[in-house]
């Protein structure tokens, strides 16, 4: 849809995501949780790894992209990361269900970016209408430190390379 606009050194645009915080009550899968808002201003003074996927439960995102961030959670923490978050255009309920399926619990947030509005401000939205997905986020990773972009990894094609856990860890 657009060319990548975000660059290392930029301040991220203000934005609000919706997510369902993990609680033990969600474990029995009969509860849905209540969506809450997360404003990017809450990341002031924090180091954030923000990983974007085109969709929850889609093959590459589900099997290859997100699981290594959970598996390497302790490595991210040792490098001073305060927040690891996955962002997608799916709604908060779908993302919460996906997070529970993957066992992310309270280690990795799953943030809804409806219609990829926030990602579009960075030039990181894509039109996947040809496969009936509508507007989605591109596959990317950002390292954000005190609201400043320290790393941008946007996948040039299908697959996970520059936005994967190993590439992000190497950039920290």
Overall residue-averaged pLDDT value: 88
Strand content: 25-35%
Spatial sequence of strands, sheet with the most strands: 5-4-3-8-9
Strand runs, count: 9
Number of helices: 6
Using only C-alpha atoms, the radius of gyration works out to 15 Å
What would you call the structural class? alpha/beta
What is the share of helical residues? 10-25%
Helix/strand order: EEEHHHEHEHEEEEH
How widely separated are the two ends? 29 Å
Give me the oligomer status.
single chain
Low-confidence runs (pLDDT<50, min 5 residues)?
none
The outline comes out as: globular
- Note the main sheet: 5 strands, mixed
Summarize the structure.
The chain has 6 helices and 9 strands. By secondary structure, it is an alpha/beta fold.
Layout of SSEs?
Blueprint: E1 16-19, E2 36-39, E3 47-52, H1 59-65, H2 67-71, H3 73-78, E4 83-88, H4 92-102, E5 109-112, H5 117-121, E6 125-127, E7 135-137, E8 140-145, E9 148-154, H6 165-171
Parallel strand pairs: 3-4, 4-5
Antiparallel strand pairs: 1-2, 3-8, 6-7, 8-9
